[in-house]
UniProtKB/TrEMBL annotation:
Residues 264-287 are annotated as: Disordered. The chain crosses the membrane at residues 12-31, 52-73, 106-128, 171-198, 218-245. This is Uncharacterized protein. The keyword Transmembrane helix applies. Keywords: Membrane, Transmembrane, Transmembrane helix. The keyword Transmembrane helix applies.
């Protein structure tokens, strides 16, 4: 079982970079909050909408997070591929001769069974989320879109921004935060840190949304640590599945927006009817 990086020693440089990444992940929702509040508002003339600016900011910040993860690994004092999850997923390194030969083996098998249950629950949560995305009605889609409906270009940029941000976020959490917290505090603290960071990233979206994302992070981190021996297979597979589900929901939203009736951008011209002394309408010339 994977409870600690085998040889990882960050050293002072990597520690400072890791703390910087951790601080950035904590401050990011606060910095994005002004733009999130303006979602749905009509854009100012000559300027992109708030949704488009959020998408562009996510696209530009994604390479920064990935470069920070590369700098963290490159500046570490001692690091191997197993330390950052670049290994083939496996449940246990050594098979015991006796099924429960010691209390440690019993705990390892119990952790494996518990992680399997958590992984199954995680899959159920993702399926429920997919059904929620597919069951949205055109009326609810219009209500969620706000006063200004997203354009086709904004929807495409939303998908690209989400995919790149998810990849860079996975690198920041499981290549930087997880090994760093594990070395100084321990694996349980690293699991809790990932769950809290993912929930905190949805700050402003409501407590239920924050709780749901924190649950995603908890299940993913537990599966990463217990079931697959610290391999990056679980985080990458999960985020790939979420990006796929998001792309399907974006396509459904785009189709339903195209089916909405087109409203007039300007009010109809005002018509005035003249009345004579008896109250009868006066016929205009040419009518």
């Amino acid at each position: 079982m994977y409870f600690h990086p085998p040889t990882f020693d960050p050293g002072p440089a990597a520690t400072l970079i890791g703390l910087g990444v951790l601080l950035f992940l904590v401050a990011q929702p606060l910095l994005m909050r002004p733009l999130v509040r303006r979602l749905g508002e009509p854009a100012e003339p000559g300027r992109p909408s708030a949704l488009m600016r959020i998408n562009l900011l996510g696209v530009w910040l994604s390479p920064v997070e990935i470069l920070a993860a590369v700098a963290f690994v490159g500046s570490a004092r001692v690091v191997t591929s197993a330390d950052i999850g670049l290994i083939v997923p496996r449940v246990q390194e050594d098979e015991p001769d006796v099924l429960f030969s010691s209390a440690g083996d019993l705990m390892a098998w119990g952790g494996t069974i518990a992680a399997s249950v958590w992984l199954a629950l995680f899959a159920v949560v993702l399926l429920v989320e997919r059904s929620r995305c597919g069951a949205a009605s055109p009326r609810s889609t219009t209500a969620q879109a706000g006063p200004s409906l997203p354009t086709d270009t904004e929807l495409r940029w939303t998908l690209w921004s989400f995919a790149l941000s998810s990849l860079s976020n996975t690198a920041a959490l499981f290549v930087v935060v997880y090994p760093l917290v594990t070395v100084f505090v321990g694996p349980p603290a690293a699991v809790v840190a990932i769950a809290l960071l993912l929930g905190w990233q949805q700050w402003g979206g409501g407590p239920l949304r924050m709780l749901r994302r924190a649950l995603y992070g908890l299940l993913m981190a537990l599966s990463h640590a217990l079931l697959f021996s610290g391999s990056l297979f679980v985080p990458l597979a999960v985020w790939g599945l979420i990006v796929y589900l998001r792309s399907r929901s974006v396509r459904v939203l785009r189709q339903r927006l195209l089916q909405l009736p087109q409203t007039e951008s300007e009010p109809p011209p005002l018509q005035v009817t003249m009345l004579d002394a008896d109250g009868n309408p006066v016929q205009r010339p040419g009518r």
